[in-house]
Design a protein that fits this description.
The chain is of the alpha+beta class. The protein folds into 2 domains: 170 residues, Beta-Lactamase (2-Layer Sandwich); 62 residues, Winged helix-like DNA-binding domain superfamily/Winged helix DNA-binding domain (Arc Repressor Mutant, subunit A). The protein is 53% helix and 15% strand. The chain contains 12 helices and 5 strands. Strands 2-1-5-4-3 form a 5-stranded antiparallel sheet, with helices on both faces.
Length: 240
Amino acid sequence: MENMLQSGYLSVLEAKNRDELQAQLVHFSQQLGFQTVAGMTVIDHFLGEPEFITVDNAPAAYRDNYQDRNNGKRDPVMQHCKTKSVPIIWDQTTYLKADQADKWEQQARFGYRYGISLALHMPEGRHFMLGVVRDQALPNDPVEITRVVAALQLFAVHAQEAAARIMVPASADLSLPTLTPRELETLRWTMEGKTAWEVANVLGISERTAVLHANNAMHKLGCVNKHQAVLKALRLGLIR
């Protein structure tokens, strides 16, 4: 199973269009035991409403309701993801606590009963939300739940890169950032799976300096972690 999930991380990066991206999202979520998935890119605009770009396999009969932004404003899961980076594991109780029992009853008819959702919040007003849903209760084993959440978090980093390339207009891209040779070297070794301590030993620098190079690269690339920075650097052709 772990090898299959690992393959999913790489496969989503190879998606060439919206249909292929959707297929990869659906395939990965089904491997984790969820029948429905949604990946949403959100672009905040200084003037005007945010822009929402969604790829999902929501049931056709529920699509209009699902895409209603006013409906999303009262959804406790969406509101959690709007401001927090910590994943949320939700069920009927989540909606009862938010006084939105009718909202859960409405979506439950279409299989939206139990799910996990998370968001990546990036600089320049960019966000990516990933949610998986099923109609059966999640496992009670905390170890299994932790494994699933961790897999989704790593997959979201890869899916966000693919979505940014496929769904976001090229005109919205920022100019190519300039990274120092050391910052690029740090990303290259991070890509090879090296820790900050290992990178420091390879480059003959202190671990603190290695972390500083990684953080500088993340900031210049507008990323929230070093793995996302590696993926973006690859997409921009800064490292190979």
